[in-house]
Amino acid sequence: MTTALCPGSFDPPTNGHVDVIERAIATFDRVVVSVIDNPVKKSAFSAQERVALIRELFGDSVDVTSFDGLLVDHVREQAADVVVKGLRTVDDYEYETRMALMNRHLSGMETVFIPTNPALAFISSSLVKEVARLGGAMSGLVPDVVERALKERLS
Fold this sequence. Notes:
Elements: E1 3-8, H1 15-27, E2 30-36, H2 47-58, E3 63-67, H3 71-77, E4 82-87, H4 90-107, E5 110-115, H5 125-133, H6 144-154
Parallel strand pairs: 1-2, 1-4, 2-3, 4-5
């Protein structure tokens, strides 16, 4: 059984995240979605709120957890075989490749890249938060449950 771990800030979870996670579910036996809990970073939602949103989106299709510290330690704790990262742009590729190489150096851990659906490649959590703050339409950017949570949070 192959376990894939999908780490990210997911602040908030976007349709791009959903696309990559759904494709991981279709590819691997078990998928763990892990929310990075970085208390130094100013997030719109707490790690616990982001975990709850992802659980609401995926139900029992994935395991959801949060972590802080080194990803390689968390991967070991979750008994994952591979890390899955979505890629939108060349910049993502360059950054994520460096991270994947460092993680392999530290632990031998492998990373699998899933290219984002081109129709969703422009979506980022930071852009979604900006659109939400300015009262713009979020249709097609985030799932309905996330849109409601954003409107409640930012109103």
